[in-house]
Design goal:
Layout (H helix, E strand, L loop, with lengths): L3 H9 L24 E4 L5 H6 L6 H10 L3 H4 L5 E3 L9 E2 L2 E2 L6 H11 L6 E5 L1 H7 L7 H6 L1 H5 L3 E4 L7 H6 L1 H17 L5
Parallel strand pairs: 1-2, 1-5, 5-6
Antiparallel strand pairs: 3-4
The chain binds iron/sulfur cluster.
Length: 195
């Protein structure tokens, strides 16, 4: 019998780094046994913390646009698992939200992945997920994204963070929309019945 449901209950009760979380623990993670696509992002922002729904913000809207996917498909956890590098809102620093809590992924990711046997593709959204998962990460996030074909051999698709703050990054790299997004959409479509 799958241990996924009790494991998710355990995750949602996690208090491991409570002392470092300004708004307290509220782990945001979604997964169903049949998930074929996994999205590994950074950590919830305040809006996601409030609603408990991952990617429920302008970044999520852009990510769905990249994937050409509506909200219904995106939030079907039996098709898509969503597991950030840090499950709880980490607070703010000088330059914006703090990095994901470093305790989180080592504590939970491997256990969750063991209960998701049908995963075929993992989107690594942002530098933290790429550093953690890519077997040979490049020097920069741009290098990782540009070299997506190599990552795909390992089942990973590196992406920039779709935050509105990254507009400049996207404007300066037209190859992302022209060359990377069509492959991303084709790969996601291949997983079946997402749109
Ligand atoms: S960030 Fe992760 S490790 Fe820390 S309390 Fe939340 S779920 Fe637990």
């Amino acid at each position: 019998m799958s241990k996924l449901i009790p494991l998710l209950e355990e995750v949602r009760a996690c208090r491991l780094c409570e002392a470092r979380l300004p708004l307290g623990p509220r782990p945001v993670v979604r997964a169903g046994e049949g998930a074929r696509l996994l999205i590994v992002g950074q950590a919830p922002g305040t809006r996601v913390h409030e609603t408990g729904i991952p990617w429920n913000d302008p970044s999520g809207d852009r990510l769905r646009d990249w994937l050409q996917m509506d909200r219904e498909a995106f939030y079907d956890e039996n098709r898509i698992a969503i597991m950030p590098m840090g499950f709880c809102y980490p607070g703010r620093g000088k330059g914006g939200d703090l990095p994901p809590r470093p305790e989180c992924a080592p504590q939970w990711h491997e256990q969750l992945l063991a209960e998701l046997p049908d995963l075929q593709l993992t989107l690594l959204v942002g530098q933290y997920a790429q550093k953690y998962y890519l077997p040979e990460p490049g020097k920069t996030l741009s290098d990782n994204v540009r070299d997506f074909a190599r990552a795909l051999q390992h089942g990973y698709f590196p992406l920039p963070h779709p935050s509105p703050r990254n507009r400049l990054w996207l404007r300066q790299r037209p190859w992302f929309e022209e060359e990377v997004l069509p492959v991303l959409r084709e790969r996601v479509k291949r997983l079946g019945a997402f749109v």
